[in-house]
Write a structure and sequence with these properties.
5-stranded mixed sheet; 632 residues; 57% strand; 7 helices
Length: 632
C-alpha cells in the first residue's frame, strides 16, 4: 500500500509538470477532446460475448494487442501474462516449465483460460499451463480481472481469453520466418503464412524449439502449430475452422536430493463455427474441442532411465455454443446464448474414466442512458457432478461529461468455481478423495476509476472484494495423506494502481502496484500457499525511434505468500528453505527493423538475480537470446 501512495504522488507530480508544458505550448483540452472516442472505443473486447468497446466494460479488463506482444521479450503465453499488472505467474526454471496463473489473489484453478473461447482448464487439477501455448499466432489477449461467471461460468478469479490472428485478406501470401539462438544451447524457428484465394482465407503457423538446459536431465523440446480457414458465404455468413496443437517434453534437472522428473504433453484444440446475420441479429454457432494428455515420470537419480513412478492423465472436452447479439432501443445490446459441455477424464488415479456434463443458458443486457451504461447478466450452470449454480451480475459505467476521458465503473456479481473431477474421485496414495466436495461460491464487489486527464498520461485505480463460501483448500487427512476440503468462508480483497506516461514522442514509462489479502474468516488467519502474491509491482519502459530501433524493458516484483518448503538433501537430511522471491526481475528486448528484416536481442533476468518461488525450480541466471525475422 505504501507503493500505491508513492505512485499516486509521482503521478500527480507528472500531471502537474505536463499540464505546465501543455499550457506553454497551447495544447490541452482541444487535443484531449479530439482523442476521446478513440481512447474509449479503439479497443474492441468480447467480454459480453459480443464485440463492444473497452469503455463500455463494467469489469476491470486488460488487453494486450499483437503489436504490444511483438515488443515484449516473451517466448510463450505465460511470459506475456507475467508482464500484466495484477496477473502473476509462478515462474519455474525457464523454457516451457509448468507455470500457474493467479489473478487478484486467486488460485490458478480459479482462473478460466480460453483460446478463441475454447475452455482449457483440466479436470485433473483445474489448472492450465500457459507456457505450452505460442504467442506468434495471437491477435490479442483479453484479461478480465475478477469474476465473470454470469457469462463464462466457472471462473471465480478471472478469465483469460486468447484471440488468435485472423485469416489473410490478400491474394499474394504474406508471412514471416524467424530464427533465434539463446543460452543453454537453445534454438527456435517459427514460420507463418496467410492469404486469401477467392472466398477462402487462410492462416498457418508452426514453430520448433529445443534447449539443452543448464545441466544433466534439464532439456526441453517443443513443437507447436496452428491453422485457421475462413470461407465467405456472402449473404449467408461465414464459416471458420481452426486447429492448434502443442507437443513437447521437458526434464526438470537434478533436484537437491539427487532425483529428477520428466514431463511430456500433447495438447490440441479446435473449433468449427458459423457466423451470420439474421434480421439484424448477429448469430454464432460453435463446435469446440480440447484434448490434452500429460505424463509425468519420477526418477531416483540422474543416472536412472527407468521411472520409479509414472502418472498419466487424459482430458477431453466437447462444447457446443449458441450465441446471438442484437441491438434494441437504438444502441442497447441484448445477448442470448447457451453452452453445452461434455468433459471426460482418464487418469492413473481413476479405475475408470469419469465424465461431467453441463448445460448453461445465459442472458446479458446493456442499457445505454448517456452518460451511464448499465449492464445486467444472468447465467445458470447445471453440472451433473456439482448441481446447479445461478450467477447474476449488475454493473455500470459512468463517463464524466466535464472530464470526457474519465470514467467510473462498478459491478457486483455472484460467482462460482467448480472443483476438478479428480479431487472427488482420486485414488492417489498421497491425496484422499472427497466425494462431498461442493463448488466455491462468492459475492464479488469491484470498483474502478480510469482517466486520461491529459493526452500524455493514463491512470487506473481498481478495488475489489470477494467473500467466498465453501472455499477450497488443502487439509490434512492423516499422517500420510491430505485432501481438498470446503472451508466456511475466505475473504479476498485488494487494490491495484497503474499509470502510463508518454515522456516524449517514442518514449513511454509504465508502473503499477497491486496488493492482495486472503483471509480465512473462521480463524482470522492469512491463507498461505497457492493464492498469489500479497504485493506485486510492475514497471516498463518502451522506446522507439524513426530509424526502426525499439527497446522494451519489463520488470516485475512479487512477494509470494508461501510457506517454507521442506526437502531432503542427498545425505537424507531435512532442509527448510523459504522462497527467495522478493527481488525485481527484469527482461529487455532490443530490435532494429529494416524493410523486410528485423534483428532482435533479448536479455532475460537482466540483473542476474537468484530467485525461486519453489526451491526445486530456481529461475535461470542471466542469458541472452538473439535472432532475426524475415517478413514478406
Amino acid at each position: 500500500m505504501k507503493f500505491a501512495g508513492a505512485s499516486l504522488i509521482i503521478a500527480l507530480i507528472i500531471v502537474g509538470s505536463i499540464r505546465i508544458a501543455e499550457a506553454e505550448t497551447g495544447e490541452g483540452v482541444e487535443a484531449k477532446s479530439e482523442g476521446q472516442e478513440a481512447w474509449l472505443e479503439r479497443i474492441v473486447v468480447t467480454n459480453r460475448r459480443a464485440q463492444v468497446g473497452l469503455g463500455e466494460a463494467t469489469e476491470d479488463i486488460s488487453v494486450v494487442s499483437e503489436e504490444e506482444i511483438k515488443k515484449l521479450p516473451s517466448r510463450n503465453l505465460g511470459e506475456v501474462l507475467n508482464y500484466i499488472s495484477g496477473v502473476n505467474i509462478e515462474t519455474r526454471q525457464g523454457f516451457g516449465r509448468a507455470s500457474a496463473i493467479s489473478i487478484q489473489g486467486s488460485t490458478s484453478r480459479q482462473v478460466r483460460v480460453m483460446i478463441d473461447g475454447i475452455p482449457l482448464n483440466s479436470q485433473a487439477n483445474g489448472q492450465v499451463n500457459p507456457a505450452i501455448f505460442p504467442i506468434e499466432d495471437i491477435s490479442r489477449i483479453e484479461v478480465i480481472k475478477g469474476a465473470s461467471s454470469s457469462l463464462w461460468g466457472s471462473g471465480l478469479g478471472g478469465v483469460i481469453n486468447v484471440i488468435t490472428r485472423d485469416t489473410g485478406k490478400t491474394s499474394i501470401p504474406k508471412g514471416s520466418l524467424s530464427t533465434s539462438f539463446a543460452g543453454f544451447k537453445t534454438q527456435k524457428e517459427s514460420l507463418d503464412l496467410s492469404g486469401k484465394a477467392a472466398r477462402l482465407g487462410y492462416y498457418l503457423f508452426s514453430s520448433y524449439m529445443e534447449s539443452g538446459g543448464k545441466g544433466p536431465r534439464d532439456d526441453v523440446l517443443e513443437k507447436k502449430g496452428f491453422g485457421k480457414l475462413s470461407y465467405d458465404l456472402k449473404d449467408m455468413g461465414k464459416i471458420i475452422a481452426s486447429f492448434g496443437y502443442s507437443n513437447g517434453g521437458m526434464n526438470s534437472g537434478e533436484f537437491p536430493d539427487g532425483s529428477w522428473q520428466g514431463e511430456s504433453y500433447r495438447s490440441s484444440y479446435g473449433k468449427l463455427s458459423w457466423e451470420g446475420d439474421l434480421a439484424e441479429t448477429e448469430l454464432k454457432v460453435e463446435l469446440k474441442n480440447y484434448r490434452q494428455e500429460l505424463i509425468t515420470r519420477y526418477y531416483g537419480s540422474v543416472a536412472d532411465d527407468n521411472p520409479s513412478l509414472r502418472i498419466e492423465s487424459r482430458d477431453r472436452l466437447y462444447q457446443l455454443s449458441l450465441n446471438s447479439a442484437t441491438h434494441v432501443r437504438g444502441e442497447d445490446l441484448l445477448v442470448l446464448g447457451a453452452d453445452f459441455d461434455c468433459d471426460t477424464l482418464k487418469s492413473t488415479y481413476l479405475q475408470k474414466a469419469k465424465a461431467v456434463k453441463l448445460q448453461a443458458p445465459y442472458v446479458n443486457y446493456t442499457l445505454k442512458l448517456e452518460p451511464w451504461d448499465f449492464n445486467f447478466g444472468l447465467r445458470y450452470d447445471r453440472n451433473t457432478e456439482f448441481g446447479g449454480q445461478a450467477s447474476p451480475a449488475a454493473g455500470f459505467v459512468y463517463k464524466f461529461k466535464n472530464a470526457p476521458d474519465t470514467l467510473l465503473r462498478a459491478t457486483v456479481s455472484r460467482a462460482f468455481n467448480a472443483p476438478a473431477l479428480l479431487w472427488k474421485y482420486n485414488e492417489d496414495p498421497s491425496t484422499a478423495p472427497n466425494p462431498d466436495l461442493k463448488p466455491e461460491r462468492a459475492w464479488v464487489y469491484e470498483a474502478g476509476l480510469e482517466s486520461r486527464p491529459i493526452q500524455r498520461l493514463w491512470l487506473k485505480l481498481s478495488l475489489y472484494r470477494s467473500d467466498v463460501t465453501d472455499a477450497l483448500a488443502r487439509a490434512q487427512y492423516n499422517a500420510t495423506q491430505d485432501y481438498m476440503e470446503n472451508f466456511e468462508k475466505f475473504r479476498k480483497q485488494g487494490a491495484e494502481l497503474q499509470f502510463r506516461v508518454n515522456i516524449f514522442e517514442g518514449l513511454d514509462f509504465y508502473a503499477a502496484g497491486a496488493f492482495n489479502d486472503v483471509e480465512n474468516r473462521a480463524t482470522r488467519e492469512t491463507v498461505r500457499g497457492g493464492v498469489g502474491p500479497r504485493q506485486s509491482f510492475n514497471l516498463g519502459v518502451d522506446y522507439k525511434n524513426k530509424t526502426g530501433f525499439s527497446l522494451s524493458l519489463r520488470g516485475y516484483y512479487n512477494r509470494w505468500n508461501e510457506e517454507a518448503a521442506v526437502y531432503l538433501n542427498q545425505a537424507g537430511d531435512e532442509v527448510v528453505v523459504d522462497a527467495n522471491d522478493r527481488k525485481m526481475l527484469c527482461d529487455v528486448r532490443m530490435s532494429q527493423g529494416f524493410k523486410n528484416l528485423t534483428f532482435f536481442l533479448n536479455i532475460h533476468n537482466l540483473t542476474n538475480s537468484k530467485y525461486w518461488q519453489d526451491y526445486n525450480f530456481p529461475f535461470p541466471e542471466r542469458y541472452f537470446e538473439g535472432g532475426v525475422t524475415f517478413n514478406w
